[in-house]
Design brief:
alpha/beta; Rossmann fold; four-stranded antiparallel beta sheet; 10 strands
Length: 244
């Protein structure tokens, strides 16, 4: 499968909470590549993530992965079907060690590319902290663990919600390198980001989300070189970011 061939197809997706519609006819596709969805706060980016992975049931439209329709299925079914999720806020277990987080999924990983040892190779800092509890890790270490946990599904698609949020530049560098390695190995990555510079470093395609729809698509260079586009779509002071 090439970047031009759709792995993930989202068509006319509608979703929200009760009577409140957040996603309103949203459509896009992702091949074996890194794609970023950027936009101001409140545009529906996290709702999109939660709908893709089954935490929120859509009211219309379709989500297909390798042609299989996934919209409306349970989160565990979607995960097994092939979507790994790195949620905003990481959602780790404070009392479990790094090793225990990874061992929970290690049985399914046997004989496949991503195992706990492979995660430690990707993030050597986690290997150093393998006996530490989730609550004892730095924000960057927690994010590495959240990514590693998602990788153990050995899914063809990884969805990351605000992966650079609150992280130091050196940790963002590690995440950028990890995304590039995943794509080089044939894994698609969908990055939802507020920080434009981090989004551009991770992904070549930038999809701009406005009021629950994909309003425009640009390359990273186009957005970085056009302050007018940044102002129009992302808002003054919320475009480049200070930590990437």
């Amino acid at each position: 499968m090439t970047p031009d061939e759709a792995l993930l197809e989202v068509r006319d997706l509608r979703s929200g909470y009760g009577a409140s519609v957040v996603l309103d006819g949203l459509s896009f596709s992702v091949g074996v590549e890194a794609v970023a969805i950027v936009g101001r706060n409140g545009m529906g980016k996290t709702t999109l993530c939660d709908t893709l992975v089954g935490f929120v049931a859509p009211s219309g439209g379709e989500v297909r992965l390798s042609g299989r329709r996934l919209d409306g299925l349970a989160p565990e079914t979607i995960a097994i079907a092939g979507i790994g999720y790195v949620p905003q806020g990481r959602r780790l277990f404070p009392s479990l060690t790094v090793d225990e987080h990874l061992v929970m999924l290690a049985r399914r990983a046997r004989g496949r590319r991503w195992t706990p040892d492979a995660v430690y190779d990707l993030f050597p800092r986690l290997a150093e902290r393998r006996r530490h509890g989730g609550a004892d890790l730095s924000g960057g270490e927690q994010q590495m663990l959240a990514v590693g946990r998602a990788l153990l599904l050995n899914a063809p698609l990884i969805v990351m919600d605000e992966p650079s949020e609150g992280l130091a530049p050196t940790i963002v560098d590690v995440l950028v390198d990890a995304v590039h390695q995943l794509v080089a190995e044939g894994v698609a990555v969908l990055v939802v980001e507020q920080n434009l510079r981090a989004a551009v470093r991770m992904a070549g395609r930038q999809l701009v989300m406005v009021s629950g729809r994909i309003e425009a698509e640009f390359t990273g260079a186009e957005l970085l070189d056009r302050p007018d586009l940044q102002h129009r779509y992302l808002g003054v002071g919320a475009t480049i970011g200070e930590h990437a």
